Amino acid sequence: MNKKVIVGMSGGIDSSVTAYLLQQEGYEVIGVYMKLHDLIENFHEDNIASGKKVARSLGIEYHILDLSSKFKEEVYDYFVGEYLNGNTPNPCVKCNRTIKFGALFDFAKEQGADFLATGHYAKTDGEFIYKAEDDTKDQSYFLAQIKQDVLKHLIFPMNKYRKTEIVKLGSTLPVIKEIAKRKESQEICFVENVYTDIIKKHTDIDLPGLALDTDGNEVGHHKGYMHYTIGKRRGFTVHGAHEPHYVKEIDPNANTIVVCKKDDLGVSKVLIDTLNLFIDKKEFECTVKLRYRTHKIACKVIIEDSEAMIYLDKNVDGVATGQVAVFYDGNKVLGSGFIKKTFQ
Ligand SMILES: Nc1ncnc2c1ncn2[C@@H]1O[C@H](COP(=O)(O)OP(=O)(O)OP(=O)(O)O)[C@@H](O)[C@H]1O
What are the catalytic residues (predicted)? Predict the structure, then answer.
């Protein structure tokens, strides 16, 4: 009997080609669309119409799974809460652990599927996650909090392709060809423009306050701490400054931000919690990504109980609490954790 695979079909090109490729390989493919939020007008209608068309053309089932209350609890509320706490959240990392490779994985098991597949650009060998072939699309960073025991049931057919190849392949298939013309999805699926539009719905974010220097002296003013992320350069005043200043720290309780010159922005040590490790070591050397679009930095990691300290080989600017630190050995993801504190 053919192996059964559930494909998360968002209506976009990557997951449509994923379903097509797996069917070509002989899998019994079942498509699933997850309703995750109602924050953007016509979002689901357009996506579902597109997904349904593809499913029909492949002759496969297409389920609609309403996971919106779980998504609100695990991803949306966390996202808002982190900004209120002065941190910079990573909702996609949370979603991958709890929703796409959490609740959707549970659904796949209930359906008796052997595998779950998505259009993520990453690789897995069932034990580890690896960077995708296409550097510019690689999503391994966002997958680094997935539970390790789920990995043996995952397939990422995009792993060996470049996005341009997928668009080209999709364009040879009549129904998918239409999808190829759709606009790329936004970075965070529920943020249409800027994150502050979302936070504004829950609280007043315009709370003028003081900008301090690293010694605690008042040097200027800001618009409200939730407008800033670590490393941000604009949107606050520093009296008499001749050089650009950057946000170094955010204190939500005092509604202050600490600003500094570029030279003082770097951190050499990073403390992380909520560890998800794919290796069983307490001390190791590796490279680390401290945000998505950045270079890896060589480091040493020491784990103590539920936290880890990362000793960076060189100072790194703009490291934000709330973001995810992902460890790599070459292309292999070794694990990750959420940034709790940084040290100069
Ligand atoms: N609402 C959804 N329902 C089902 N699967 C989803 C949904 N959103 C994302 N996915 C799955 O997660 C994968 C990665 O999502 P992401 O939003 O990062 O990708 P994308 O580049 O927009 O992909 P696509 O072109 O397939 O929309 C998708 O390819 C798809 O398999």
Answer: 95, 189
